[in-house]
Model the fold of this input.
Amino acid sequence: MKHLLLTLALLLSCAAHAAETPPNIVVILADDLGYGDVSCYGAEAVETPNIDRLAREGRRFTSGYCSASTCTPTRFSLLTGTFAFRQAGTGVAPPNAAAIIKPGTETLPAILKRAGYATAVVGKWHLGLGDPEPDWNGDLKPGPLELGFDHCLLLPTTNDRVPQVYVDDHRVRNLDLADPLWVGDKPPAPDFPTGVTLRDTLRMDWSHGHNESVHNGIGRIGFYTGGQDARFRDEDLADAWVKESVDWIEEHQNAPFFLYFASHDIHVPRMPHERFQGKTSLGYRGDAIVELDWCVGEITKALERLGIADNTLVVFCSDNGPVLDDGYKDGAVEKLGDHKPAGPFSGGKYTVLEGGTRTPFITWWPGRIAPSVSEDIVCTIDLAASLAALTGQSLSDSACLDSMNVLGALLGDANAQGRTELLQQDNSGNKFGLRVGDWKLVRQKAGKRGLVDSIYYLPDDPAESHDLAKDKPEELARLTARLDAIIADGRTRPAAD
Done:
């Protein structure tokens, strides 16, 4: 009876939310930002007053997660509501990747567009463009506009991968077709200058990889030629994203809108604008965190200036945990000091330990979300089902296979709960973490033994340093069976009866 009453209360709450004036929705996705990288989560070497304000006035989650420990699979899952490992080819996308999310997929922007929202994505995409490959000198489709977005201004891959151009809706912005853009995975000529041949002239040296094409004095992954008028300067990325976002918000302030702001900060190559360089003791990595915080402040200031902040839900999260040396010698390792990017957790980007997927996660809606700190488990993959509930939209049974409606937890409603369990994957979807309540199963390689399952009790061991598999065989069996079932079943969101 208690469970029935709770379910009824949640349904009534969701119905009430849907009946209200639809709120604007802004999702701000940071890149490679760790749990301990912002001051509201304990950082002392860097100050993030704008992110801290969201946490102070909104709801700060201590068990907020992304669904994968690298960017492409997390972004896939955020937009589709389905774990990326369920679809082949969802690992980190190369420069010439075709569109990974296929047209016709029920996506978060498509759901909100169906609810009458204007929709836009600004920032890093990294989910491929075109079919069977991008047409850099023509229409880059399918892409975001075929998935439910009305507008996009994109970094097409990620900034350590070529090309360094903006994609404006279906076209490369400012491209002169007399200087066509070519992108490839092999050098176009034997004497093509690279990060190896030009290493002595680079303004940021590489530590591994990232030594093919050189742009802005920095080596990249992949090769490209042409498109000189279309190329951007690394230092200007954040300013371009903020201007585009604020302009678009101003144009759509009188009707409900959804903005997906996908920051490039603090991904490599870390080259923040000159006005942020030297602002922290952590080198360019810390300076990029300050730049990210500025972006958050500019977006919230625009909402307040236009008088629409009280009718806007802002979600702040990250695509995966932190990494220091990710291919460049930018001082992140040498200048780390006592800073702990992953906070109390072990691991980071690329791992299925807590540091790989447990990240800052904040919801802010002035006048609607009361200031609070929550231990509820929530994940970026849940935004599809949760925001569908917020806007009164139903999901087809074949869509958003792993997205759970945790709207009540996101908004801080009384008696609402987050997830009871959460799967976490690595880039390839071969290694997994499974959190069930306070227990965590980690399935990863252990030398020549191949994939090995270990378990941890997180309240006593947040760093996952004491494997209890031998001491708790029944718990190990329970968690292993559940992980195997999640992988085999093809979905975790309950199917319709």
